[in-house]
Amino acid sequence: MTTEQTELGRFLRTRRAGVRPADVGLPAGTGARRTPGLRREELATLAGVSIDYYTRLERGKETRPSPAVVDALARALRLDDEEHGYLRALAAQAARRVPVPSQPSRQVRPTIRLLLETLRPNPAYVLSRTNDLLAANPGGVQLLPGLAQWPVRQRNTIRYTFLHPAARDLWPDWEQKARGCVAHLRAVAGTAPDAPDLATIIGELVVKSPDFGRLWDRYEVRRMGDGEKVFRHPVVGTMTLAHESLELNRTDGQRLVIYMSTPGSADYDAMVLLDMAGSADLGANLSSASTRSRSASPKRPDLDLAEPGDEMP
């Protein structure tokens, strides 16, 4: 049995357990139920497939469900559009119809870097598909306290959420934030399950964070998008910021994330202070790096650059 087939079966079992008979108009029946949700035969009936076929599909013995069967299962399991897409991707993987993806580029276009600067004082940054921080303006760096002290290649907002000691104090509703992070990685895994960048971050967090492992097993699927977040920031205090996440054309899944608030509000004033603090820190770091470079060898200072394409504005 392959890993992809196991993932398809696990997803079906997990989502089946989350649907009650009453949710789909079925009687609860008599006697104790061995599962908290639908029985296999109930889901098979709702999807219009045989019990034997569904059982083989869930156990990984059937690997080529037709698009019609996948769609019927999605309807029976009450999946939303993102979850439905994830199920389709898992079915394609089980049938070996998905090529092994290449390593995504970390390069950020100069015009996007200019856009980050133009957006100030709004905190903004560019993330990879697995939430590596690829570029940011001063407020974007300052928004996550302590992240800039990590090596460039380690700067990942999902890693930060689970492993940085400041994260649980930064977000009052840390559990909801963490669930969104894991659901996003699940969505990415549906389209690129064998990608090295994805395997690296998931493998690390499963080992280092019991909370990540707990949430990963829930099989929630949701790509990060727009919304509102409350920050309990150690420098500027508590602020509530709206955010948008925009896909960047001609990139390997890069996203521009922008935070904002209404001008004149207390939250906006806090955002301006955050940008000022970020600029002050950047200036101090650049000054320190310049001093070191003059007194030491002429190699490039290791402040914000690990290699070309990893620059932090």
Could you characterize what this model shows?
The protein has 2 domains: 3-94, 434 Repressor (Amino-terminal Domain) (Orthogonal Bundle); 110-295, Beta-Lactamase, CATH 3.30.450.180. It is 47% helix and 10% strand. It has 13 helices and 5 strands. It has a 5-stranded antiparallel sheet. A hairpin with a 7-residue loop joins strand 4 (237-247) and strand 5. Helix 1 (3-17) packs antiparallel against helix 5 (81-94). The longest helix is centred in the last third of the chain and has 30 residues, at 266-295. The radius of gyration is 23 Å and the shape is elongated.
Helix content: 40-55%
The largest pleated sheet is described as: 5 strands, antiparallel
Q: Quick one: overall form?
A: elongated
Task: Provide a count of the helices.
Answer: 13
Unreliable spans are 1-5, 296-313
Specify the structural class. Answer: alpha+beta
Question: What is the total tally of β strands?
Answer: 5
Strand content: 5-15%
For this structure, the CATH topology of the largest domain is Beta-Lactamase
List the secondary-structure elements in sequence, H or E: HHHHHHEEHHHHHHEEEH
Can you summarize this structure?
The protein has helices at 3-17, 40-47, 51-58, 67-76, 81-94, 110-118, 138-142, 157-163, 167-170, 174-191, 196-208, 210-216, 266-295; strands spanning 124-127, 133-136, 227-233, 237-247, 255-260.
